[in-house]
Design a protein that fits this description.
By secondary structure, the chain is an alpha+beta fold. It is about 55% helix and about 15% strand.
Length: about 180
């Protein structure tokens, strides 16, 4: 296996000369964590979630609660199953989040008038009023994440993430279809 290396690049960082590490264009193996996309994406996700949690604590929330609020600001009245899918948590986790958020006066749950089995989640006035305070916090974290990225690099990076997610979701769907008897 050949290791295609890029040349190290020297750059000035706060007056100190810094040498960037050599980049492999091909990982040394599945456990080469420095070049494993799953490991890197997971690490980025943990760091961003920790920063979001830190900032949301100042407002009495967690990052997971802020994620629920964000989805409801975009479309109030989502069902619990829609929220579960969009936020990316399991049913029991979402139930616990919504119970705490209801006690905090951020959301309320109501039965769907056309299907009583379905619970819809609605923001309270207090939940809606937090948007101008929380949105700048999320924007600040995104700005930190994309520091030193051009707008083009940012767009490409986001497109690559979406493409990778679609690839995995397509694979998961096809694998589930194979295991389900028709």
């Amino acid at each position: 296996m050949s290791k295609a290396l890029s040349k190290p690049v020297r750059r000035e960082a706060s007056g100190d000369e810094e040498q960037t590490p050599q980049l492999l264009t091909q990982a040394l193996g599945p456990l080469d964590f420095e070049h494993n996309p799953g490991f890197l994406v997971s690490r980025i996700g943990r760091r961003m979630a920790a920063e979001m949690d830190r900032r949301m604590r100042d407002h009495g929330l967690t990052a997971a609660q802020a994620a629920v609020m964000s989805r409801l600001w975009m479309q109030d009245g989502l069902t619990q199953s829609q929220l579960q899918e969009q936020v990316g948590v399991d049913a029991s986790t979402l139930t616990g989040l919504l119970q705490r958020m209801t006690k905090q006066g951020l959301v309320r749950r109501r039965r769907d008038p056309s299907d009583g089995r379905v619970l819809r989640v609605l923001l309270t006035p207090h939940g809606r009023d937090l948007r101008p305070q929380l949105t700048p916090e999320a924007e600040s974290i995104n700005s930190l994440f994309f520091r030193d990225f051009s707008s083009g690099e940012r767009a490409i990076f986001i497109e690559f993430l979406h493409r990778a997610l679609r690839n995995l979701e397509t694979e998961q769907t096809s694998t589930q279809g194979e295991s389900d008897p028709a």
